[in-house]
Specification:
161 residues; Jelly Rolls; 5-stranded antiparallel sheet; 1 helix; 10 strands; globular
């Protein structure tokens, strides 16, 4: 069986093939393209990678990330699921479990003013390509507060800069 194609059809297939090849060949470089601010720093630290991933497995308020001098924590993504109905809040602060200078990052500054989750409900924020939120003070710890004592599980991806 012989298939006859017009010259126009052959050219269209050739152009489509070249465009596909070009996309595949240049995609890694395009995917790493960063937006740069006038000062020369990346516009969003979460743009290229997630530096650290913290597994969340708690039944009480927990410090997830310890702040470091001169750095801020950028939350790239967060996924939570709760076993029972409870409120949860992601906060920043200093001291044990962010007890001092506590400020809400996602939700309020306490579990009572956080996200209201039903039993077996999940919360997913961000995909890792852009920061969802960030600490507003250098060296701030990041803590996850919960109003109940049942299982709270999940994962958080961060950049520290």
């Amino acid at each position: 069986m012989t298939i006859h194609m017009t010259r126009q059809r052959r050219c269209a297939l050739l152009v489509a093939g070249l465009l596909a090849w070009l996309l595949v060949a240049t995609w890694p470089a395009l995917a790493k393209t960063q937006l740069i601010t006038p000062g020369g720093t990346p516009a969003d630290p979460c743009r290229d990678t997630v530096e650290a991933v913290v597994i969340i497995n708690q039944t009480a308020n927990t410090q997830l990330i310890t702040g470091a001098t001169g750095t801020r924590v950028y939350i790239c993504n967060l996924a939570l699921v709760t076993a029972s109905a409870q409120n949860v809040a992601l906060v920043q602060g200093t001291g044990t479990i962010c007890a001092t200078d506590r400020t809400g990052l996602l939700g309020g500054a306490s579990a009572a003013t956080g996200f209201n989750l039903a039993a077996n409900q999940s919360l997913v924020l961000g995909h890792g390509g852009f920061a969802v939120t960030q600490t507003t003070a250098n060296a701030a710890n990041v803590c996850l507060l919960q109003s109940g004592s049942d299982q709270l599980s999940g994962i958080i991806g961060v950049q520290v800069r």
